[in-house]
Amino acid sequence: MQLRPTPRHIDRSSRVIEYLLVALVPFVFVRPFHELAGLALMFALPLIYARLTVGRAEGHLLHLGYRLGMPVPGLLPPTVRHLER
After folding, report:
1. 18-27 exposure pattern, b = at least 16 Cβ within 10 A, e = fewer
2. pLDDT string in tens for the chain (85-residue length)
3. What is the CA angle 43-48-52, rounded to 5?
4. Which of 39, 46, 60, 66 could form a disulfide with 56 if both were Cys (CB 3.0 to 4.6 A apart)?
5. 23-31: long-range contacts, CB 8 A cutoff, minimum separation 24
6. Is there a contact between 6 and 18 (Cβ–Cβ < 8 Å)?
């Protein structure tokens, strides 16, 4: 019995939906106030998002935000009170 070959990219997640959301959500919310700003954000934010996420592990931006001091509820278990470097 011969098995059918599996593509190598079967486990790779597609980020097309993420990029569309990053582009369209600011466009929809900013455009009623200022159309040029909405268009600028529609093109700039996906490029910035891609630059920050391509080639990095999932959750990288969440950990980056935590390291920069942003409150990220649920990132660490509640039993952890203090981290030492």
Report:
1. ebeebbeebb
2. 677 777 666 666 677 888 899 999 988 999 889 999 999 999 999 999 989 888 888 888 888 888 888 887 777 777 877 766 6
3. 150
4. 60
5. none
6. no
